[in-house]
Write a structure and sequence with these properties.
Blueprint: H1 2-20, E1 29-35, E2 38-56, E3 62-79, E4 86-94, E5 97-105
Antiparallel strand pairs: 1-2, 2-3, 2-4, 4-5
């Protein structure tokens, strides 16, 4: 009987260690995709998590922030069209740490100029 109790206690201890350590190694995936002046943030993690998203200007002033309770994943669009051109930071923070990406708002806009060239002998 004593041997059975010891085995039972060891079994409970091992199971508790597996369950409590199961959140370690759980990965999160964060992506920021730009489409025009809209930046889409995608967050994925298989656990329910409180996520804080903040957008900061070049001086570090908070332009926007929100708290989201994620039940696995979410995608949120952030429209910066009303903000002046410049560099901004988007910070996504959860219990695993902080992810920061620099947004170059207003840059990268291409202006195409097409000119017909005179070519000799189809060269």
């Amino acid at each position: 009987m004593k041997k059975m109790s010891v085995i039972f206690i060891i079994l409970i201890t091992v199971c508790y260690g597996v369950v409590s350590g199961s959140s370690e190694g759980v990965e999160r995936k964060i992506r920021v995709v730009k489409t025009g002046s809209i930046y889409r943030v995608t967050y994925r993690r298989p656990l329910q998590t409180l996520v804080r998203v903040a957008i900061l200007d070049e001086a570090g002033n908070k332009v926007f922030s929100e708290r989201i309770i994620s039940n696995g994943s979410f995608t949120r669009p952030y429209n910066l069209s009303q903000l002046p051109k410049g560099n901004y930071k988007i910070c996504v923070r959860d219990d695993l740490g902080e992810y920061t990406k620099v947004l170059r708002h207003g840059s990268g806009d291409w202006i195409a100029h097409i000119a017909k060239l005179n070519c000799e002998g189809n060269k």
